[in-house]
Amino acid sequence: MIFLTVHRGRPLSERSAEEIVSTVSAEAEDRAEQAGTVFPHVTTHDLRGTYATHLAALFYFGVPTSAGRDLDGKPHRVNIQSAVKMAATGLGHINARTTQLYIQQVGLMASQYSINAFLGREQQ
User: Which of 65, 43, 62, 61 lies closest to 106 in space, CA to CA?
Assistant: First the structure.
């Protein structure tokens, strides 16, 4: 569900998404090899996990979900249960408990990284 086509607005087939990711990953691997470094092979499953972990981090760290304010004048935020349900739906998980693992992972990582570092906005 997280891979949508630009023209049709429908999910890409798993095969199409994997082909795109595999091609881009192979190119990055080749460039890294030429530079004498290593780039890990990336799959669509890796991207799904990254998406879920970043989504969980946004809610865990309390990033506002919109510019609006609630009745108390505080930024709109989504509670953790709603976040897990939204992520589970987007990832196609049948059981939301599978998605809760990402929340636990983010909790462990939160002690080591700021939200900007976690999302790649600053260097460690």
Answer: 61
Nearest to 60 by CA among 7, 120, 6, 102: 102
Question: Which tens digits make up the pLDDT trace of 69-82?
Answer: 777 777 766 666 77
Lookup result for tokens 């199409």: 16
> Which parts of the chain sit beneath pLDDT 50?
1
> In the predicted model, what is the mean pLDDT of the chain?
77
Residue 35 identity (one-letter amino acid): A
pTM of the model: 0.60
Token representation of residue 45: 């499953």
DSSP H helices in the chain = 14-34, 44-60, 80-91, 96-110, 115-118
**Neighbour count for residue 16 (Cβ, 10 Å):** 13
Domain ranges in the chain? 1-42, 43-124
Q: Which of 89, 83, 76 is nearest to 57 (CA)?
A: 83
